[in-house]
Amino acid sequence: MSRPEYEAPADVFYNALEAKKYARSSRMQAIQTQLTDRALELLLLPVAAEGSGETQPSLLLDLGFGSGISGARLAEKGHFVVGVDISKCMLDEAVDAGNTEENADAILGDLGSPLRFRPGVFDGAISISALQWLCSAIRTESHIASEAAASNAGNGEEDEDMDSCEAEDGRQNRSSSLKSQLGESEQASMGDDASASSDGAMSSDNDSDSPTSSRTLVAPSQIGDAKTNAPYKRLRCLFQWLFASLKTGGRAVLQFYPDSPQQVEMVTSAALRSGFGGGIVVDYPNSTKAKKYFLVLWVGGSHLPGQQQQLQQLQAAALGADGPSQIESTRRERQKQPRRGKSSKATVSRREWIEKKKERQRLQGKKVRHQSKYTGRKRKDKF
């Protein structure tokens, strides 16, 4: 079974039909809720009161809001959520389900383009099953708009009739390639998206202040075309504006499904080069199906007083009220050797020495002869 991020861009793949199936799947709801609870645990948010176990209400950013399952879970815990997603159909499902009514707002935007939030406004950020979409080789609408502008500039001296014919041919080619990528089963539901993509690219660029300026990914390109897709550049763009949006000491927990160790290294490198500290946390590493990858990042060092206090609280909760506050450790002591000399030598018989040596060899797993009445006796001198 192929991965969905390699079949089509997120806003194309999650059309009205797929978004409805995803939002109404009880299995997806259970998995999303479980992953959100785990991500909230890794955020290490400040505790409201000692012994209560509840965290203080915080302003959190949900990357890849989707149908609002994770955002609704965060709102249940008393937090305020701002969600960002590129699929309009998924956000429509979130609104229909009522996941944006209480302590949650949703923004239609592309995570791989700059989103200009106020610096240091968010206490933390989470992302559930969204980061791998930025690692796939896809073309955004801004790329298509720039190519169209360059093509029009080069052909400015041609007749308008020729330009209209070429534009019509380009529309038909993009529509046919989009349908062939998505398959025959999704042609009916993708008719509106294909016709919308053929109307032309967006007029605004990626640097617009509006988070919806380059929100749509209109057509997939061939996988592996690094010049037009640049997944690493999109990841760097995400982590740069995310680093600026988090407050000092804030954390970001991003759960994703990598397809190779090289992809994990690429994501980690993009995050660390953007100023974050942190690394990968793997739950159930020995399991094939239950293994989960979490990219845990923080702004600032772990030497912050708040971080140290949160770590102590987490250790106390894990060990219990009556448990020790630290792990006991002792040095490995070597057996004391007696001083060499006639006066310090212990009187050990030959038989006792041989018995101790055989016992030590048995503990080492070696094959040792059994004890007998002749053990330790001196052999007779040969004639």
Automatic annotation (TrEMBL):
Q: Recall the GO molecular function terms of this protein's record.
A: rRNA (guanine) methyltransferase activity
* Disordered, as annotated region: 148-222, 318-383
Bias type Low complexity, positions: 188-214
Record field: compositional bias (Acidic residues): 156-167
Provide this UniProt record's keywords sorted from A to Z.
Methyltransferase, S-adenosyl-L-methionine, Transferase
Protein name stated in the entry: Methyltransferase
GO cellular component terms, A-Z: nucleolus
Q: Point to the regions of Polar residues compositional bias.
A: 173-187
- The 18S rRNA (guanine(1575)-N(7))-methyltransferase Bud23 C-terminal domain covers which part of the protein? 297-380
**Organism classification:** Eukaryota, Sar, Alveolata, Apicomplexa, Conoidasida
A Pfam family in this protein? Answer: WBS_methylT
The keyword NADP is annotated on this UniProt entry: no
Basic and acidic residues biased stretches: 349-362
Per the record's keyword annotation, is Iron included, yes or no? no
